């Protein structure tokens, strides 16, 4: 009974850690695209709420359908699109910023099409990294499935050798300690180990592992973090192009883009740019920084000031979207090689630690 309750406790806690919590987790790329397509259908139709519900009926994912139904209810209550989206858990800041930009200019459809194009680029990046992880993920899954049984067999072998060997002659202290340690594992200890490995297997094969953990970790590595930066600058450029083309003053456009951003270097840089714009600085001066656009892009914006700032931002949005895809194309093979190397080290170390002392004991070394 105690073993069963302990197993249930470990399993329930593991599931809570591994499964995405809809109240706090960011939606997956697939769900974001489903919601955007539904919103575009709602904007294009005479009755937005009916368009949203029609789109919800054709969706396969429960999360996307529930989000569109909730959005339709908020729209029927007379709330604005941005206010309605705020009631849906997991909507990323980029979509919220795009919708606010569309409302500010009265061109919500263009804003949704812009963010949809940006998310399509993200989807391609995610697909490349998922493909690069296919082989390491398969090998890791096989290892996680076999590891509990390997430990179980090794434990039983250690128990047998300790019971039949007289005096344990020829054994090193390390080997003796290892065998005693393995033999001290109770038989039911196999169950929680299997549960942990199964939960790790679920996490390794879930798409959220790639989007939330793997890519998040890789963003601290030079080169990989350019993907996140290009994605942010592409979306910022789309929103600024839309706002400036609608006649919104530049400082107010920056305010709309920075609203709702979580604290960080990017949000701080946008706040600084907003203050500079309010003080009368030129757009290229406000946006030229290490976190935002580099100086070369600032020079491009300076030229665009007289030729059309909105067109310049549109070109930049397309440039950074293509840059994001190009970076992922080059880095995906590197990710695959690194993951295979790390996986080989982990598997080799784990198997070696278990079997080397046991084999030496068998050979009498």
Write down the oligomeric state: single chain
Order of helices and strands: HHHHHHHHHHHHHHHHH
Structural class: mainly alpha
Shape: elongated
Main β-sheet, in a few words? none
What proportion of the residues form beta strands (DSSP E)?
Answer: under 5%
- The residue-averaged pLDDT reads 72
Question: Top keywords for this entry?
Answer:
single chain; 365 residues; mainly alpha; 0% strand; disordered N terminus; membrane; T2SS_GspF_dom; transmembrane
How are the SSEs ordered, and which strands pair?
Elements: H1 2-18, H2 29-44, H3 48-57, H4 62-76, H5 81-85, H6 93-105, H7 108-132, H8 134-164, H9 173-183, H10 190-204, H11 207-218, H12 225-245, H13 250-258, H14 265-278, H15 283-287, H16 295-307, H17 309-363
Helix pairs in contact: 1-10, 2-3, 2-4, 2-7, 3-4, 6-7, 6-12, 6-13, 7-12, 7-17, 8-9, 8-10, 8-17, 9-17, 12-13, 12-17, 13-14, 16-17
């Amino acid at each position: 009974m105690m073993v069963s309750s302990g197993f249930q406790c470990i399993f329930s806690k593991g599931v809570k850690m591994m499964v995405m919590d809809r109240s706090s987790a960011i939606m997956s790329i697939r769900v974001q695209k489903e919601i955007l397509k539904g919103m575009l259908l709602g904007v294009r139709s005479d009755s937005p709420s009916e368009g949203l519900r029609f789109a919800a009926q054709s969706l396969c994912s429960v999360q996307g359908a529930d989000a569109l139904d909730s959005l339709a209810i908020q729209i029927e209550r007379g709330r604005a699109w941005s206010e309605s989206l705020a009631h849906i858990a997991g909507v990323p800041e980029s979509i919220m910023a795009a919708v606010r930009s569309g409302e500010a200019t009265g061109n919500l459809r263009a804003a949704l099409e812009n963010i949809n194009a940006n998310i399509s680029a993200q989807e391609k990046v995610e697909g490349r990294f998922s493909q690069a992880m296919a082989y390491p993920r398969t090998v890791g899954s096989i290892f996680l499935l076999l590891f509990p049984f390997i430990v179980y067999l090794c434990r039983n072998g250690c128990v047998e050798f300790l019971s039949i060997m007289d005096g344990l002659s020829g054994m090193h202290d390390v080997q003796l300690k290892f065998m005693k340690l393995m033999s001290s594992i109770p038989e039911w200890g196999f169950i929680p180990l299997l549960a942990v490995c199964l939960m790790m297997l679920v996490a390794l094969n879930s798409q959220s592992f790639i989007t939330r953990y793997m890519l998040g970790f890789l963003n601290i590595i030079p080169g990989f973090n350019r993907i996140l930066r290009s994605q942010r600058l592409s979306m910022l450029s789309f929103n600024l192009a839309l706002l400036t083309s609608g006649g919104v003053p530049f400082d107010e456009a920056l305010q709309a883009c920075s609203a709702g951003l979580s604290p960080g270097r990017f949000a701080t840089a946008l706040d600084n740019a907003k203050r500079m714009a309010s003080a009368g600085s030129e757009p290229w001066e406000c946006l030229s920084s290490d976190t935002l656009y580099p100086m070369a892009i600032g020079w491009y914006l300076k030229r665009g000031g007289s030729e059309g700032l909105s067109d310049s931002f549109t070109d930049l949005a397309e440039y950074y979207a293509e840059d994001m895809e190009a970076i992922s194309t080059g880095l995906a093979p590197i990710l695959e090689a690194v993951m295979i190397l790390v996986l080989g080290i982990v598997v080799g170390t784990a198997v070696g630690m278990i079997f080397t002392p046991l084999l030496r004991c068998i050979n009498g070394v």
